[in-house]
UniProtKB/TrEMBL annotation:
InterPro entries: ADAMTS/ADAMTS-like, ADAMTS_ADAMTS-like, ADAMTS_CR_3, TSP1_rpt, TSP1_rpt_sf. Its main location: secreted. Residues 104-185 form the ADAMTS/ADAMTS-like cysteine-rich domain. Disulfide bonds join 45-76, 49-81, 60-66. It comes from the Eukaryota. The keyword Disulfide bond applies. It is found in: Secreted. This is ADAMTS like 1. One of its GO terms (biological process) is extracellular matrix organization. Residues 1-28 form the signal peptide. GO terms for cellular component: extracellular matrix; extracellular region. The keyword Disulfide bond applies. It comes from Rhinolophus ferrumequinum (Greater horseshoe bat). Gene3D superfamilies: 2.60.120.830, Thrombospondin type-1 (TSP1) repeat (2.20.100.10).
Length: 216
């Protein structure tokens, strides 16, 4: 091992100290990882469409405790849901329609974009001002906000990029290209370009406040 070589004349002591520290760090990481069992298989996705979450578990083999996480997540089912599927948060609210609240039945509608706790299930009784937290956590895969890909997992809002990866900060450019540089379209004022699809127009509604984004 490098750290055990005898210092020869002219060998910098600082370099030897660095090798010794690196060796200890490597052994420490190996010891830490050896306390864990292998990661288990991925669970079934929490959703069949619209973007959900799947998890994998591992077991601590130590009699005391292990450093690190025993669960990891990834996104799944990243395909659009059919229009008739409806809103995922709304489905969770309507699931309480058959349950009495304070002795009365209500038709519950979703309350979205809560800035304080976007991952709680808050619903409003239709036709009333009554807003109730029907569950402290929405189901995994529920969008934190209606205009974002970020999703709730285990009650916490997790960042999701346009590449559908957890923790990713990659965003679409003005042309709707994930991690693009904006070179595939141009801004046109005062006219409509037919090659701009309905999907693109919806995606770029903010840009359309200033003009129309036309794809090349």
């Amino acid at each position: 091992m490098e750290c055990c070589r005898r210092a020869t004349p002219g060998t910098p002591l600082l370099f030897l100290a660095f090798l010794l520290l690196s060796s200890r760090t490597t052994r420490s990481e190996e010891d830490r990882d050896s306390l864990w069992d292998a990661w288990g298989p991925w669970s079934e996705c929490s959703r069949t469409c619209g973007g959900g979450a799947s998890y994998s578990l591992r077991r601590c083999l130590s009699s005391k405790s292990c450093e690190g996480r025993n669960i990891r997540y990834r996104t799944c089912s990243n395909v659009d849901c059919p229009p008739e599927a409806g809103d995922f948060r709304a489905q969770q609210c309507s699931a309480h329609n058959d349950l009495k609240y304070h002795g009365q039945f209500y038709e519950w509608l979703p309350v979205s974009n809560d800035p304080d706790n976007p991952c709680s299930l808050k619903c409003q009784a239709k036709g009333t001002a009554l807003v109730v937290e029907l569950s402290p956590k929405v189901l995994d895969g529920t969008r934190c906000y209606t205009e974002s890909l970020d999703m709730c997992i285990s009650g916490l809002c997790q960042i999701v990029g346009c590449d559908h990866q957890l923790g990713s900060t990659v965003k679409e450019d003005n042309c709707g290209v994930c991690n693009g540089d904006g070179s595939t379209c141009r801004l046109v004022r005062g006219q409509y370009k037919s090659q701009l699809s309905a999907t693109k127009r919806k995606t770029h509604r903010e840009g359309q406040l200033l003009g129309l984004w036309a794809c090349y």
